TrEMBL record:
Name of a matching Pfam family: Aminotran_4
Molecular function per GO: branched-chain-amino-acid transaminase activity
Source organism (scientific name): Lentinula aciculospora
Cofactor(s) recorded in Swiss-Prot or TrEMBL: pyridoxal 5'-phosphate
Modification N6-(pyridoxal phosphate)lysine occurs at: 217
Name of the protein described by the UniProt record: Branched-chain-amino-acid aminotransferase
Known catalytic reactions: L-leucine + 2-oxoglutarate = 4-methyl-2-oxopentanoate + L-glutamate; L-valine + 2-oxoglutarate = 3-methyl-2-oxobutanoate + L-glutamate; L-isoleucine + 2-oxoglutarate = (S)-3-methyl-2-oxopentanoate + L-glutamate
EC number(s) given by UniProt: 2.6.1.42
Gene3D superfamilies in the record: 3.30.470.10, D-amino Acid Aminotransferase, subunit A, domain 2
Amino acid sequence: MALWKTVGNSTLDGVSRVADLDASKLTITLSETLKPIPPRDTWLFGNIMTDHMVVAEFDPETGWSNPEIKPRGPLSLDPASSCVQYGTTVFEGMKAYIGPDGKPRLFRPDMNMARLARSAERMALPPFNIDQVLVLIKQLITVDRRWIPSSSGYSLYIRPTLMGTRMGLSVAASDHATLCIFLSPAGPYFRSGVKAISALAVADTVRAWPGGTGGHKVALNYSPGFLPLRVAQKQGYEQILWLLGDDMKVTEAGAMNIFIVVKRDDGEINLLTPPLDGTILPGVTRDSVLALAKAHAAGEIILPGLQQTLRIHAQERTFTMDDLWRWSADGRLLEAFGAGTAVIIASIGKIGFKSREDIILAEHEDGLGPLANAFRTTILDIQEGKEAWKDWGVLVDEL
Ligand SMILES: *Cc1c(COP(=O)(O)O)cnc(C)c1O
């Protein structure tokens, strides 16, 4: 049982006792017919769904319902629901991989759970026990396990989603919510070989701003980027490079955190990514890249393909478009790459801005610069259980 203060439904002591989310109360209804698994070459990102989903509902009077795993299908929503009218939806994106031992595993899922709780709090959605959400995720993966291919680069993308379902148009927090977790098998992001992407830097639309919601994984952060993305794609770029402020601080690339590699005067290299000032999404991949770079610098690991003596200075530091132009003109901008769960690491080969000449980064044979490649390989090896690092790989069997 959870204890927290409620506004409308207070008991004598001002504290209401309602049921917390409890995975031990899970009921499982299996689908009578399992879907055929479509050929892997038809798997785009998130276009194919597995057989089952988790659903639990929060009611302010009674708390969380007993969670269910049931055949995947549409939810029924009143059109006046908070999430439909006011966008009170938050979500997570994580992946399960099959290890060499044949067991499914997750990558740093505690970070996703903590972020889900922060996103829900930011949208004033009801609280829930994040450990129980993780247990439910593991149960669902176990039920739909046949969808995870064991080939390298393949995984099961997991989309925990929390929606405000209060019915009514008053512009206020939703005291009802639905938690839904579903799965989508995922192939390698780049189907015909890894290649560098292009990004158009835009100054007239912003993704996030100080005091806004950019630091949370909330649905309403994404749709405002669709129109600028369409415009950029018409101009031949694949992603948007998001800027902020008159000084054009570089913030993120599409829905990825951005890193750049800059050669220093002393010949060593800086690995830079913008600091978590509330406008940057605190990515699990971002955190992993920073941690691995620091471990390499401390001599705790040697990143593949890099010299042990290569001094990498990983820094969370603001940089601007002017910095990029200057470092590029000086031949010091060695690499730029995006980091996020879907792609892991994507090199950026070209950065455009209005009518200025594109910044062109050095081309690499396998589509990734040496640092981008080192981080991608290491993170994928840990995700796939080929390497162990700290407590980053978490077995699904261990409920
Ligand atoms: C999800 C997301 C990322 C990457 O986060 P990961 O935890 O690494 O997947 C980066 N930027 C934005 C805007 C995102 O939504």
